Amino acid sequence: MLLQPRRHGRKYYNVLPTSVSPPSGYGKLLSRYIFEKAEREPSQPLGPFRAAAAALAAPVPTAALRVTWLGHSTVLLEIDGRRFLTDPVWAERASPSQLVGPKRFFAPPLALADVPPLDGIILSHDHYDHLDAAAIRVLAQRGERFFCALGVGAHLRRWGVPAANITEATWWDEIELAPDFKLIATPARHFSGRGLLNRDSTLWASWVLRGPQHKVFFGGDSGPFDDAFQQIGAAYGPFDLVMLEIGASDPEWADIHLGPDNALAAHQLLGGGPLLPLHWGTFNLAFHAWRQPVQRLLEAAAPTVPLLLPAPGQRVEVAAGPMNSQWWQ
3-class SS at 79? Predict the structure, then answer.
C-alpha cells in the first residue's frame, strides 16, 4: 500500500515516529554553538558567481535535460522543452527577519528579474530556506504557476498569487500539464511551519517530473524514509536526474535531514542515476563545517555514482556525465 500522510485536526504528522526536537536538549545545542569550532561559514567571500541569463532565456529543446543550481534548494531545471524552478529563495537571510538569521554565503548567481519564463514553480514545503515571500511576490506578478503540497497555497494567496495559478497536492497526486508531461507529489519525512503557532499545519513533499523523454526526482527536505524512496523508485524510477539534500544534518535531528550518507542510500533506493546534491554551501544551518557535506559525499560515493557538482549558476547538460567543479576549494 502506498504511503499516505497522516493528519489529525489541523496538523500533519510523519508516517514514521520522527523527532524534531534535539534528544540532548537545547542546552546542549547552545553549548555546541558556543564551543564547537567548525568553519560553519566561509572565511573568505565566495564568488561572485554568474549564471548565463541570456542562454537560460532561450527556448528549451524538446530533448533537453539541463540543470542550473542557484544555491541551497533553488534549481532552474530544463526538461523536455519545459522550464521549472524549485524552492525559489533569493533572500539575504533564511529567516523571518532580514536583519538576523542565517545569511547567504554568496549572492544569487541569477538576478530574480532575469529568471526566464517558467512552466511551473515547484515548492517542497514552507520553511524559510525553501519559501521566500519576497521572491514569491515578484514571481506572482509574472503570472507563474505554482505547485505545492496541501496548505502551502494559503501562504501564496496571501502574497499575491491568484488562486487559479496554484495547484495543491497530496502524496501520489498526479498533475497533468500535457498528455505526455506530469508532476507527481511524493512522500517526504520532514516538518513544516513559519512560526511558533503554525507548526506542521501544511504538508511537506518531494516531487517527480515525468516528461516524454526524461524523469527527474526532487527530494525537497527529508530524513531517512526507506519505504517511501523504494515506493517512489518502483513507481517512477529509475530517474535521469536525482536531486537530494545533503546539508544541515546532525545526529540531533537525524530524522528530518538526510546528510550525505543517507542521501546516497536514498539515491540507491530510488534506482540510482545522476545525483545533484542540494541544500548545502549556501546558509549556515547546522554545526558541521560548510564544506563538510560535499567532502563527505565525495568520500562516501561509490565510483559508480555519477555526481554533478557544478558551481552556483553553472548550467549542466546532464547527459554529459559526472562533473566536479570543486568551486568550494
Answer: strand
Q: Strand pairing of 146-149 and 166-169?
A: parallel
pLDDT for 30 equals 85
Strand, helix or coil at 157?
Answer: helix
> What CATH code is carried by the domain that includes residue 294?
3.60.15.10
The percent of residues above 70 in pLDDT, for the chain, comes to 100
Rounded to whole angstroms, the Cα distance separating 141 from 134 reads 11
- Dihedral angle sign, alpha carbons of residues 104, 106, 112, 113: positive
Q: Considering the domain boundaries, does residue 293 fall inside one?
A: yes
Residue 268, in any domain of the structure: yes
Domain count, the chain: 1
- Domain hosting 192: range is 124-306
Helices (H), 118-255: 133-140, 153-158, 226-236
What are the tens digits of pLDDT across the range 223-259?
Answer: 999 999 999 999 999 999 999 999 999 999 999 999 9
